[in-house]
């Protein structure tokens, strides 16, 4: 069953401990002793800080007893001998040391947390690029970015607070409970244990209820963000149809749902905080009443009363924090579960174990009885066989839905064939690495999408490490250098998101230059000029003819006038080769190609309708 990326999944599908187990390797990575040493040093600083915190109230008690009219003879001689001023100074020093060790712990651990975030972000980024085209066609970019953002931040939060909040709190509670039991009696420990049990049960149950509300908040937040990004990406379309108000209403609908979930979260938080305060205050008062009774009976000193109060406050402060920490840890688990679901999305196209790099000697391309469909219930190719000889230019034409673009996607191995095989120089594409295959094929798509960076960067993207002279040479070959040079900042001109600052023809020429720089032995032109006007198309055709020399070329085309000079034209129909031959031979054959040619010529020659 395909996993969903919404925040609506019941966490029972992915227990919190399973997520924690996935995070542990980032905290304790194998083969990285430096990271492990940092974790151990941070833990040591933590234990020292907690030990100091537990000992500090004893000095507080000693100072109070030293100031009392009658010193408690039962008090430790060492503490009484230091005097009130000395005990007060020692108390201040220990509090400062506790803070210092806590800060030292954070400094030591900071690199571990940041490194874990970076590793996970990189792993997620790489995994997304490893997923199939089928996944990316159906993805929601805005929602995806939110899932990654929340998940990566959740890792740092989980590492930091599991290690430095929940763990230390448990350690401190155990130490304080031991002090109350041994220095006083079992009643103090009983009250503390009952208070903690009630507090934990209340906090966890209410927080579990709140997590479901937070999941709904995440869903609505993701939906609102997706609608906003989708609307902005389609800015021109929105304007074309005067749909600004419609888009604002769609966005507001999502935000209204988010608002409702956010209000329920706020109300439930108020209930949680009041309930926690009620339980903590009840426990604190009960212990203080027992201590006050002991002072009145002469069993305890005023210093004991103050020390008990200090210990209870020391317990209640982190307990208040625990409610927040548990709530945030629970939310972090939800966020990380979404991200780990994303990481567990299987890559549809993977390299075989031991796959070798492809070796292109001539560039012979062979589709051998290929069967494929994007949906298994709807086949696109029904046993397609075609061959492109080394250095030959073959055009693939046909009506919409005949499988033209599918040929291009299969050759680049965006998908694996379901039957038959595709070979380059006798090597089955499934037996070679994807990286090496992608290096030997250059594609000029119908719509060249550019990065929101400079013109120079977009051309240089064709080959990593290309220098400025090579970029300029590629631009000259694509006949766009003069245009770039005329820009105020030349090759440093930013092209805008998806290259929207350039015209269609300019973008296409940048795409040509990028592919020329790559200099691949096999070239695939996928409707490379169909989106351009006739004049721009004719000017770019010259550049395309130059690119084709010395390469094996497949041209996917709808406009037949762009492929008349191809060595061979293959007409697809219903996923099979209907006919093939040169332009002249196919016209004389008076078949499917000739019919398509005459229809297109009639459309192009048809003049404007006279009024």
CATH class of the largest domain: Mainly Alpha
Largest sheet features: 6 strands, mixed
Strand content: 5-15%
Main sheet strand line-up: 6-7-8-3-9-10
Q: How many structural domains can be distinguished in the coordinates?
A: 2
Secondary structure class reads alpha/beta
Helical proportion? 55-70%
Uncertain segments are 1-15, 70-75, 77-81
Mean pLDDT over all positions: 77
Question: N-to-C SSE series?
Answer: HHHHHHHHHEEEHEEHEHHHHEHEEEHH
Radius of gyration: 36 Å
The CATH superfamily of the largest domain is ABC transporter type 1, transmembrane domain
How far from one another are the termini?
A: 60 Å
Number of strands: 10
Describe the structure.
This protein is α/β, with parallel strands linked by helices and 611 residues long. The strands form 2 sheets. The protein has a 6-stranded mixed beta sheet with strand order 6-7-8-3-9-10, with helices on both faces. The protein has a 4-stranded antiparallel beta sheet with strand order 2-1-4-5, covered by helices on one side. Strand 4 and strand 5 (427-428) form a beta hairpin. The protein has helices at 16-27, 33-67, 77-130, 133-138, 141-183, 186-233, 235-240, 244-296, 302-343, 404-411, 434-440, 455-460, 468-477, 481-486, 504-518, 534-548, 583-589, 592-605; strands at 365-372, 381-388, 393-397, 419-424, 427-428, 441-444, 522-526, 552-556, 568-573, 576-581. The protein is built from 18 helices and 10 strands.
């Amino acid at each position: 069953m395909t996993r969903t990326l919404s925040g609506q999944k019941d966490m029972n599908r992915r227990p919190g401990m399973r997520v924690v187990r996935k995070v542990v390797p980032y905290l304790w990575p194998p083969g990285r002793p430096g990271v492990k040493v940092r974790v151990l040093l941070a833990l040591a600083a933590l234990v020292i800080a907690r030990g100091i915190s537990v000992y500090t109230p004893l000095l507080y008690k000693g100072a109070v007893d030293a100031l009392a009219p009658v010193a408690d003879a039962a008090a430790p001689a060492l503490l009484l001998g230091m005097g009130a001023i000395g005990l007060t100074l020692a108390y201040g020093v220990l509090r400062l040391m506790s803070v210092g060790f806590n800060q030292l712990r954070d400094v030591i651990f900071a690199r571990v947390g940041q490194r874990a975030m970076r590793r996970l972000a990189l792993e997620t980024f790489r995994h997304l690029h490893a997923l199939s085209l089928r996944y990316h066609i159906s993805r929601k970019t805005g929602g995806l970015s939110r899932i990654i953002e929340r998940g990566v931040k959740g890792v740092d939060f989980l590492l930091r607070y599991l290690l430095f909040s929940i763990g230390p709190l448990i350690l401190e509670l155990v130490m304080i409970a031991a002090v109350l039991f041994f220095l006083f009696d079992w009643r103090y420990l009983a009250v503390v244990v009952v208070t903690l049990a009630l507090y934990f049960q209340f906090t966890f149950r209410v927080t579990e209820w709140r997590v479901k509300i937070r999941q709904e908040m995440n869903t609505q937040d993701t939906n609102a963000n997706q609608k906003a990004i989708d609307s902005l990406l389609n800015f021109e379309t929105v304007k074309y149809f005067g749909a600004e108000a419609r888009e604002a209403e769609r966005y507001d609908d999502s935000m209204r749902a988010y608002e409702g979930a956010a209000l329920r979260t706020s109300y439930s938080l108020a209930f949680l905080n009041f309930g926690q305060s009620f339980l903590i205050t009840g426990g604190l008062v009960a212990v203080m009443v027992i201590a006050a009774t002991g002072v009145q009976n002469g069993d305890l000193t005023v210093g004991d009363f103050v020390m008990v109060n200090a210990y209870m406050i020391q317990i209640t402060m982190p307990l208040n924090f625990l409610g927040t920490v548990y709530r945030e840890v629970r939310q972090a688990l939800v966020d990380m579960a979404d991200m780990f679901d994303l990481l567990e999305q299987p890559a549809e196209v993977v390299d075989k174990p031991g796959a070798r790099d492809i070796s292109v000697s001539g560039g012979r391309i062979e589709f051998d009885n290929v069967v494929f469909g994007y949906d298994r219930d709807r086949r696109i190719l029904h046993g397609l066989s075609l061959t492109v000889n080394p250095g030959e230019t073959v055009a693939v034409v046909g009506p919409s839905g005949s499988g033209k673009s599918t040929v291009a996607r299969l050759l680049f191995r965006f998908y694996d064939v379901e039957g038959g095989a595709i070979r380059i120089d006798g090597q089955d594409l499934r037996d070679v690495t994807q990286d090496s295959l992608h290096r030997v094929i250059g594609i000029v798509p119908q719509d060249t999408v550019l990065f929101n960076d400079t013109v120079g960067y977009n051309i240089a993207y064709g080959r990593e490490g290309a220098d400025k002279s090579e970029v300029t040479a590629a631009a000259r070959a694509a006949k766009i250098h003069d245009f770039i040079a005329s820009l105020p900042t030349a090759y440093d001109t930013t092209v805008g998101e998806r290259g929207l600052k350039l015209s269609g023809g300019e973008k296409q020429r940048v795409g040509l230059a990028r592919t020329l720089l790559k200099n691949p032995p096999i070239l695939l032109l996928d409707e490379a000029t169909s989106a351009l006007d006739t004049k721009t198309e004719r000017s770019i055709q010259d550049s395309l003819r130059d690119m084709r020399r010395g390469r094996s070329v497949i041209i996917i085309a709808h406009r037949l006038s762009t492929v008349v000079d191809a060595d061979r034209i293959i007409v697809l129909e219903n996923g099979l080769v209907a006919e093939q031959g040169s332009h002249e031979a196919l016209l004389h054959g008076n078949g499917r190609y000739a019919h398509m040619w005459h229809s297109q010529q009639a459309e192009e020659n048809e003049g404007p309708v006279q009024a």
